[in-house]
User: Fold this.
Amino acid sequence: MQTKRCLCVLMACVLSVACFGMNAGAIDSGAQEPEIFVSRASGRFSMDIPGGALVTADQDFPMEAGETVTIKASYSPVDASVDFGLIDSDGSFHYFNTNEGNLNKTIKIKERGYYTLAVRNNSSDTINVSGYVNY
Assistant:
């Protein structure tokens, strides 16, 4: 009986050591999972825009379909007609128009690509614009 008990304890120890000594890992099928980086940021802008001019930001940013960009801005003179929006990779200008001196709008991205903040002054006078963009 004593021998049987010692043998059981010895087998339990061997099994424990064997289980803890095995490497656990995933099988590499050769396909790599894509890495997804989400970069959200906000930036402040301030500029003078001559009458009839379209001014764009210095840098574009990548966006995925379904993401949003919020533009909060004010300008003077307040009665000027101004377009605030984004220029997509194809050069199309997606914008909101205002002639009230301020804007607080969100644009939902429909297609994956690179986008650039743009402001167009539709009036003949120079305007001063300042605000924030969150993307």
